[in-house]
Specification:
By secondary structure, this protein is mainly α. It has a domain at 7-114 and 162-176. It contains 5 helices and no strands. The protein has helices at residues 7-27, 32-74, 80-124, 127-143, 164-176. Helix 1 (7-27) packs antiparallel against helix 5.
Length: 179
């Protein structure tokens, strides 16, 4: 879909994405009811805007949105709710804009992660991450094989990130971005 996003799609994605972000910040979970209702509303709104072509656009966006975050879920980097939320966003945005949403989601998540790290660094110092990275580097130096030492729960890198917030930012920017 070229041109501005129709109002029904814009309002729909803003409502679904930002409710999910609010819930995720509070509970670190995104309810299935919200993501499934969001996907259904996205498809219905696409049909209202574009008929059968709109349905195909919504389905393509839904499938692509799910596919984009599925590897993150399989590698335990994101949760299943995040995958479903990106799918719902794709139903509203269509395939072109969901790719743009992913780009801005990743950028926002990187900024949030950097903020979390700086905040933790200021309160905890560098002892945790530097010790872990040094241990991994020594193991690699001695054995020639990479290793991974997971962060402690109180370490900056061990903090959970409510990923619905970057998804909401990414979806909002993608919906407002001129194509």
């Amino acid at each position: 879909m070229n041109g501005p996003v129709p109002a029904i799609l814009l309002v729909g994605i803003l409502v679904v994405a930002w409710i999910a972000a609010w819930v995720d910040v509070r509970t670190f979970k995104i309810p299935n009811a919200l993501t499934l209702a969001g996907a259904g509303c996205g498809l219905a709104a696409q049909v209202a805007v574009g008929g059968l072509d709109g349905l195909w656009t919504g389905l393509a966006g839904l499938g692509l949105g799910l596919a984009l975050l599925l590897p993150g879920y399989l590698f335990k980097v994101t949760g299943a709710g995040d995958v479903k939320l990106m799918g719902a966003a794709g139903a509203f945005l269509g395939p072109e804009r969901v790719l743009l949403a992913l780009l801005f989601t990743i950028l926002t998540a990187g900024l949030m992660g950097a903020f979390y790290a700086v905040a933790a660094w200021r309160t905890q110092g560098a002892r945790g991450p530097l010790r872990r990275y040094g241990s991994m580097l020594r193991f690699f130096w001695v054995t020639g094989r990479p290793s991974y030492v997971p962060p402690a729960p109180d370490e900056a890198m061990g903090q959970r990130l409510p990923f619905a917030v970057p998804i909401a930012v990414g979806a909002t920017v993608a919906a407002l971005w001129p194509l």
